[in-house]
Write a structure and sequence with these properties.
single chain, mainly beta, eight-stranded mixed β-sheet, 8 strands
Length: 102
């Protein structure tokens, strides 16, 4: 799943907008599988990812790592997202310094 936090509540993202920090084209994604494959083919290139259509509320738990996260194939929206070729996974950074997936 593609996930985002809104007012400290975890939500599923139905449609996410990936915008490039380089010359890559901007794109929309509806699944984490699509997004992961796209990022994996562009390792270590930084992007921004935003939730454009938010779906179900999933959790009020501020630490959902036991149920959601990169080990489960989930990708979090954030200020910087990329496929880390050293770690072999998608990593997301937020403005608050939070790291997801790495």
């Amino acid at each position: 799943m593609i996930l985002t936090y809104q007012q400290r509540v975890l939500h599923e993202v139905k449609l996410a907008f990936l915008t490039a920090q380089t010359g890559e084209k901007d794109r929309y994604f509806s699944t984490s599988e699509q997004l992961t494959a796209y990022l994996k083919n562009r390792p270590d290139i930084r992007f921004h990812i935003y939730a454009t259509t938010v779906g179900s509320e999933l959790s009020h738990d501020p630490e959902p790592e036991g149920a959601y996260g990169g080990v489960f194939g989930d990708v979090f929206c954030g200020d910087e997202v990329f496929y880390d070729s050293v770690k072999g996974c998608v990593v997301t950074y937020t403005q608050t310094g939070r790291i997801w997936g790495g």
